[in-house]
Write a structure and sequence with these properties.
binds uridine-5'-diphosphate, binds manganese (II) ion, alpha+beta, five-stranded mixed beta sheet, 18 helices
């Protein structure tokens, strides 16, 4: 009996060992067979992006159709009420109570937003050619991702509503609102309940801590399942037929990232209007977002997508496949800032391209001011910029550091993953990007700024005791002449620079000599410098001692009696048109045409 028990025990033990062994073996085998699944689970636990499945979309044929939803366009055109058709709206005095409170926390007139319908009609301000444009019949599906931190209730819902209303149903798979740890009460359960009841394609995910817009977008992208990811800000409105123009270039080449035109929803009145008729995205060497003019080739085809060096940031479409091939955003970028450069450089340098689609328009509320307090993370923007510069900009990084020397001392954190990606994808050098894509950027924003053409007092030859004097004047005020002040230390208002921008600045201020009046003897007024020549263009002719204004030049002249300054047609014989400019850089002036060309 005892022996029997022993045998049975032995048998059970052996069987147990065998079962455990088999399970282990099976698991090892399985993990070998499906390494991606294991990785996916592991990455999710670590908070990293999963390896995305392949894009399902394939271009079947080139058939094109008219995608307009004419019924919707018709019903929209009949809408009336506050803010309808994008008209400016106003609060009545009794509605004004919440104005200040809501303005302060949003940076725009949120009380007015509450008065405007979520599904208001916006004006169709596309180029007229867009109205008859056809797009591929077979287009990829879309996940729209909207990160938000403390977005106002109705502007957030208007974003989602406009997307649902103005997208072809079968193309729009889902809208994911990513709540970046908002503290406003409605952003939790009331939002979820509202969406469940009213917008079934829209859902919210709630992040457990403040992650910043970059990691919030990544969190949304990880949830997304459609072919194309479209990122929007949480205070936007999609315009008529916005989707097909964004999707077609991606259907044709999945490595193309497409941006819509961004219209302006005015922060005070919610009026909907165009910003301009398009420009190419760029930056200066302090990393302020700037724009470059369209190329002559682009101007010939006003409804066709054109190449743009960098995106504005918040609004763009990219195939999910390409986004994850680029490993999304650098997760080390915190809160806000620099991510538009990271992704744009990465797209161009690593074999993709970026275009703006003029026939796709989305309105965006540019806030009056940023209402969020700094989340107590120090100079996170500087740190973000340094991460981008160190990984992507090669020798050009130094031009940023020259202007912001403290960046040199910032610790950008671990960059191994980003550098490995650049290596893995064999991305091109930044020099290639600067020379081939942003080739005209350095002309407008030279990495090393040329010096000044001239500096000092401007003394008249007809009345040599008189100098141009800015007289503590401010913008829009005309300037004149005063007795020259010989003591250079007391010459604050008689000291001017003719900068490489080809404008004349009051030394130490960013006020420029400006003439907008086309009439004879027009005043010279001060105006904030825009560096765009035009009304502020001045050239010094060393031989004739003339200050020439504008492309169709008139000469700086004066009436010594009235101490008045003006421009008039140039006259070789006039002595009042001759000026002695104290210090001129003759070498630079000789090279006038080659400096600051646009
Ligand atoms: N955002 C976020 N977390 C943040 C900061 C911003 O989710 O920490 C969201 C914000 O709600 C908006 C988008 O990111 O949807 C872009 O931010 P914002 O509109 O403030 O940038 P701007 O348009 O002013 O450049
Ligand atoms: Mn925004």
């Amino acid at each position: 009996m005892k022996r029997n028990i022993k045998t049975v025990l032995k048998f059970f033990l052996l069987s147990a060992v065998t079962v455990v062994f088999t399970v282990l073996l099976f698991r090892i085998f399985k993990s070998k067979q499906y390494p991606q699944n294991e990785l996916l689970i592991k990455n999710r636990i670590n908070g990293l992006e999963p390896i995305a499945p392949q894009n399902e979309f394939e271009l079947v044929d080139n058939e094109k159709i008219d995608w307009h939803d004419y019924e919707k366009i018709k019903t929209d055109s009949l809408r009336t009420g506050p803010g309808e058709q994008g008209k400016p709206a106003y609060l009545s005095s009794s509605e004004n109570q919440n104005y200040d409170k809501l303005y302060k926390v949003n940076g725009f007139n949120a009380a007015l937003s509450d008065k405007i319908a979520l599904s208001r009609a916006v004006p169709d301000i596309r180029h007229s050619g867009c109205k008859s444009k056809k797009y591929l019949k077979h287009l990829p599906s879309v996940s729209v991702i909207v990160p938000f931190h403390n977005e106002h209730w109705t502007t957030l819902l208007r974003t989602a509503t406009s997307v649902v209303n103005r997208s072809p149903d079968h193309l729009l798979k889902e809208v994911i609102l990513v709540d970046d740890f908002s503290s406003k009460a409605f952003s939790k359960k009331p939002l979820d309940d509202y969406l469940r009841a009213n917008l079934t394609k829209v859902r919210a995910i709630h992040l457990p801590e403040r992650s910043g817009l970059i990691r919030a977008r990544l969190a949304g992208a990880r949830e997304a399942t459609a072919d194309v990811l479209i990122f929007l800000d949480s205070h936007t409105e999609a315009n008529v037929n916005w989707l097909p123009p964004l999707l077609e270039p991606i259907a044709q080449d999945y490595k193309t990232c497409v941006c819509p035109f961004i219209d302006v929803v005015q922060y005070e009145t919610f009026e909907y209007r165009a910003q301009d008729e398009g420009a190419r995205g760029a930056f200066d060497w302090e990393f302020f977002y700037k724009r470059l003019p369209l190329l002559p080739e682009d101007l010939k085809h006003p409804t066709e997508p054109f190449r743009s060096p960098v995106m504005a940031g918040g609004l763009f479409a990219i195939s999910r496949k390409f986004f994850w091939e680029l490993e999304g955003y650098d997760e080390g970028l915190d809160i806000w800032g620099g991510e538009q450069y990271e992704l744009s450089f990465k797209i161009w340098q690593c074999g993709g391209q970026m275009v703006d689609a003029p026939c796709s328009r989305v309105g965006h509320i540019y806030r009056k001011f940023a209402p969020f307090p700094n989340p107590g993370k120090g100079d996170f923007v500087g740190r973000n910029y340094k991460r981008v510069a160190e990984v992507w900009m090669d020798e050009y990084a130094q031009y940023l550091y020259m202007r912001r020397p403290h960046y040199k001392g910032i610790d950008p954190g671990d960059l191994t993953k980003q550098k490995a990606l650049r290596e893995k994808l064999q991305c091109k050098p930044f020099k290639w990007f600067m020379e081939n894509i942003a080739f005209d950027l350095v002309l407008k924003y030279p990495p090393i700024e040329p010096g000044d053409f001239g500096v000092g007092e401007i003394r008249n030859l007809a009345a040599p005791e008189l100098c141009v004097d800015s007289g503590y004047k401010d913008r829009d005020q005309a300037i004149g002449l005063q007795e020259c002040v010989s003591d250079t230390r007391k010459r604050g208002e008689q000291n001017f620079t003719l900068t490489w921008h080809k404008d004349i600045r009051v030394k130490g201020k960013s006020l420029c000599f400006d003439v907008s009046d086309p009439n004879d003897k027009a005043d010279v007024v001060l105006y904030p410098c825009h560096g765009m020549k035009g009304n502020q263009y001045w050239k010094y002719d060393v031989e004739k001692q003339w200050f020439l204004h504008g492309g169709n030049p008139r000469c700086l002249d004066c009436d010594p009696g009235g101490k008045r300054l003006f421009v008039t047609s140039c006259d070789e014989k006039s002595k009042t048109q001759k000026w002695r400019f104290e210090n001129v850089n003759l070498t630079m002036i000789a090279d006038w045409e080659n400096i600051g060309v646009q």
